[in-house]
Amino acid sequence: MDNLVIADKTYTSRLLVGTGKYKDFNETRAAVEASGAEIITVAIRRTNIGQNAGEPNLLDVLPPSQYTLLPNTAGCYTVEDAVRTLRLARELLDGHSLVKLEVLGDPTTLYPNMVETLKAAEILIKENFQVMVYTSDDPFIAKQLEDMGCVAIMPLASLIGSGMGILNPWNLQIIIDNATIPVLVDAGVGTASDATIAMELGCDGVLMNTAIAAAKNSVLMASAMRKAVEAGREAYLAGRMAKKLYSASPSSPTEGVIARSNTATTKTTDKSA
């Protein structure tokens, strides 16, 4: 079976989903179930997983016994904030080590600050965290993060929450071609076709939140994204036909087809009338 393997754990779904921006936890649960995702991201600074006593707890509707939780550092702009947030997540989740690191540059673009990201990744890896890292689409930075010991590289397709899709497939392809750990598109997916394109390029998976949560029907969009990721993966494995400009090729075989006669039909004129 063609499974996704991250940090030595196997998953059947290649779609990872976030848990923010839904109207309530019931909608969150319904969308996650429709997506088929097994890994769900949790913004520790924005979602209660036990740190706020007396408030609704996400773990009551999406229990760790059924899903792999991926605590993330959304909203962090410094090394210190990111590291502190993931240390808290590990305490709340009884030593959980798989995390998603993102250190943002500014609150307007939410573009990753790669200088701070590299520093935070180094600290977390030394503390035995398994780091899945949100990064720019710079192939050299991506390779550096892999060499440091990150367990997955997560380059943006376009800015977080933009829904602009994959704006630079060429850089993404370079990252994929040179990586020996999973590469998952993170940020910028807007609709199902974006997810399919990412998978057709050879990505190992896709992570999304806003594309599902901000849809008019989030549960239906989650279902669409599930199918899109599966279709893109199958197309990648199948190997698409080569593109050929001005080289027509009939879809049906031509061998054995009865040739059309070039002999003109002779009309006989009756002159006896």
Short structural summary:
The chain is α/β, with parallel strands linked by helices and 273 residues long. The chain is built from 8 helices and 10 strands.
Which properties best describe this structure?
globular, 10 strands, 8 helices, 34% helix, 273 residues, 3-stranded parallel beta sheet, alpha/beta
What would your notes on this structure say?
The chain is α/β, with parallel strands linked by helices and 273 residues long. It has eight helices and ten strands. Strand 7 (130-135), helix 4 and strand 8 form a beta-alpha-beta unit. It is globular, with a radius of gyration of 25 Å.
Chart the SSEs and their pairings.
Layout: E1 4-6, E2 9-11, E3 15-18, H1 25-35, E4 39-43, E5 68-72, H2 79-92, E6 98-101, H3 114-126, E7 130-135, H4 139-148, E8 152-155, H5 169-178, E9 184-186, H6 192-201, E10 205-208, H7 210-213, H8 218-238
Parallel strand pairs: 3-4, 3-10, 4-5, 6-7, 7-8, 9-10
Antiparallel strand pairs: 1-2
Helix pairs in contact: 1-8, 2-3, 4-5, 6-8
How many H/I helical runs? Answer: 8
Average pLDDT number: 91
The largest beta-sheet arranges its strands as: 5-4-3-10-9
- The stretches of 5 or more residues where confidence is low (pLDDT under 50) are 263-269
